[in-house]
UniProtKB/TrEMBL annotation:
InterPro entries: Papain-like_cys_pep_sf, Peptidase_C92. This is Lipo-like protein. Gene3D superfamilies: endopeptidase domain like (from Nostoc punctiforme) (3.90.1720.10).
Length: 242
């Protein structure tokens, strides 16, 4: 029998996943062009339009509210399940790029990562397909949607609860960060400044649960990939639209 907190968490997750009106996809790039550009272990960032996306973007001060790991497909087809993600309702699953056709997307690519490390990262993520989403953090996110408090920018990110850290539970960015940390690849500088119980500022190693989707965009170790630039374009010909 499902526990009461879990049942409440699932209902809250369903509400938070509902789309908000007024979202606009700014990119006019064909989805297939994005698919043709992706390489194994690339990270696809999503500018979501759900209630929880609004909370994540507010607290992290970022455009990006969701992250997926590209693990490859038999052919470059937007219908092929090629992305591993941790979804609020479905847990860790493998989904097609088509799922995010109506959203603004960004490709982040690790620089200098070996083929062996890419394979290890993908294997790590695939081994976690079927794990459930860590609902521990959604109550805090919901609170900021309901109350809409005025929180100083420098404190917003610190107010996110990053989950329980249990091995069978995950949220989108921490799943990917943990996979990268397993092969020793950095995302942001290794140490962060935090306050101890005495209120003193101390340095501590950055744990994979400290990462949010926008960190891959800000990372000095990932390149931002633009499909139009990667494939070449003509200044005399207008770009094709979908």
């Amino acid at each position: 029998m499902e526990s009461i907190p879990r049942a409440i968490g699932r209902r809250l997750a369903a509400y938070l996943s509902k789309p908000r009106p007024g979202y606009e996809r700014l990119s006019r790039l064909p989805l297939q062009d994005i698919m043709d550009t992706l390489q194994p272990a690339d990270i696809v960032l999503v500018d979501g339009n759900s209630h929880i996306s609004t909370a994540i973007k507010y607290l992290t001060q970022s455009t990006w509210s969701h992250a997926c790991l590209y693990v490859g497909a038999e052919k470059a087809d937007v219908e092929q399940p090629s992305l591993i993600e941790a979804d609020l309702n479905d847990g860790v699953t493998q989904v097609p790029l088509r799922k995010y056709e109506q959203f603004n997307l960004r490709i982040c690519r690790p620089v200098g990562l070996s083929a062996e490390d890419k394979a290890s990262i993908i294997a790590f993520a695939r081994a976690r397909v079927g794990h459930v989403y860590d609902l521990k953090n959604i109550f805090d996110l919901a609170r900021y949607l309901i109350q809409s408090p005025a929180v100083p920018v420098r404190y917003r990110r610190d107010l996110i609860t990053f989950g329980s850290g249990e091995p069978t539970r995950a949220i989108c960015s921490t799943l990917i960060a943990e996979a990268y940390q397993e092969v020793g690849y950095p995302i942001l500088p290794e140490f962060i400044r935090v306050e101890n119980k005495k209120g003193e500022a101390v340095s501590m190693a950055r744990h994979f649960t400290h990462y949010v989707p926008g960190d891959f965009d800000l990372s000095p170790y990932f390149s931002i990939i633009k499909p139009t630039i990667e494939h070449g374009f003509s200044l005399s010909a207008p770009p094709q639209s979908e």
